Each structure stands twice: as C-alpha cells, then as structure tokens.
Amino acid sequence: MKKILLYTTLLFALPFVTLAHAGHDHATTTEMQKKDEISKQLEDTINICAALINKIQDLENRVLQRVGILASDGSLSDEVQDQIDAKRESLDEVLVSANDRVNNNLPKLSDLVLNGDKPAKPVKNFKSEVSKIKVDLINSHKLIVEIIELIKKDMLIDDNTATTTDNER
Amino acid sequence: MSAEQNPGVGPLIGSIIIVLILLLGGYYSLKTIPSPAQVPVDNSNNQPVPVISAPIKPPQASTEIKDIEADAKDVNVASLDSGLENLDLLIQ
Predict the structure, then answer these.
(1) Chain A positions in Cβ-Cβ contact with residue B14 (cut-off 8 Å)
(2) Distance (Å, rounded) from C-alpha A69 to C-alpha A155?
(3) Surface-to-core class of residue A36, CB atoms within 10 Å of its CB (0-12 exposed, 13-18 middle, 19+ buried)
(4) What ipTM did this prediction achieve?
(5) Are B92 and B46 in contact (CB under 8 A)?
C-alpha cells in the first residue's frame, strides 16, 4: 500500500514539475524577446548617430569643395578664408570626437546594457554618451551653417561691390 | 468498517487527499502563469525608429551653396531622442 501511495504521489507530482518547467521556459522566452528588442533599439540608435555624422561629413566635404572653387577663382577674401579655416579645424575636432564616441564608446556601453545584470545604470551611461554625441552634432551643424553664411556674406559683398562699380560706370 | 478492520482504507484516503491538494495546486499554478497574450507589449510606442529613411531622390553631391544649405536644413538631430525614449520604455 505504501508503494501505491508513493507511486500516486509521484504520478501527480509530475504535472507540477512540467508546469514549473513550462513557466520557466515562458519567462525565459519573454526575457529573450525583451533583450532582442533592447539590442535592436541600441543598434538603431548607434546607426542613427553614425548616419548623422556621415551626413555632416558629406556637408563639410561639399562646403570645402565650394570653398576650394571660390578660392581658386580668387573670389574669396583672405579674411573670410582664414575664418573658414578656423571653423573647419573646429569642425574636424568635433567630428573626430563624435566618431570616436560612436565607433568605440557606444558599442562598449551597448554590450554592458545587454550583458549586465542591472541594465538601468549602463542605459543611463549609454544615454549620456548619446547626449554628448548630440551636442557634437549640433555644434558641427552650427559650424557648417556658419561657414555657409560666411561664404554667402562674402559673395554678397562681392556682388554689391560689382553692382556699385557697374552703377558708377 | 473501521480502518483497523481494513488496513488499506487509511492510505487510500491519504492518497485521495494528496491528489486533491495536488490538483488544486496545479489549477492555481495554471492561473498564475501568464499566457503569452497577457504579456503587456506596447507596440505603438516600442516600434524601433527606422535607421535611415529610404532616399526619395538620389543624394545630392552638388557643391552649390543653396543646395548645401538646403541639405543642412534637412539634418534632424532630434531623431535621436525618439530612439532614447523607446529605450526607456523597453528597460522599464
């Protein structure tokens, strides 16, 4: 009779073990799905940063090409040329800093978010780094706009001078 | 008929009680484990931000100042914020 009791107990304990296992599997699946979503979001954020930096670099290259054309034509004053050079140096420094943050710091912080036990702190650090990149991007964009304004202003002065000269004639 | 007269009755009653307790426990466990449909997933806010929107026209390589100026105006640094907001929602 004791054997019957033992077997009965074991038989009915089996569903419990199955249930516990199923619950654990479900929790693991949910956790993995969440981790995948976080991983994708981190990757997307890094890609957005990289795309914005590429866009700024493209603008810088095009502006500098225009500056080169104007300088070779002799239609850019030395004063403006010097101002543009100074801004270009600042722009390069900012872009190097932003590139370094995106290529080195963000992937490391992203790994910490995904592999750490408590993701809250690494996420805070990741967000802080993204904020610094954002500041770099805003500053570099501002420098690009300033260079464009310098060129426009110089060209406008040249145009006005030419117009005045034409009128005087 | 007492238990002393039939020694198999006591363990049988004990088994039935254990089985009932196990069944109740199993039912409780089933109720407490959330089904996949019950997991709160806010798809409206957690949609990842598209990395780069597909270009409608080929990228301009013009070095004309007005073209560069127009492209500079299109640079949207604020797109980073929505990505960070999504990250916050996922971590919570």
Answers:
(1) 5
(2) 13
(3) exposed
(4) 0.70
(5) no
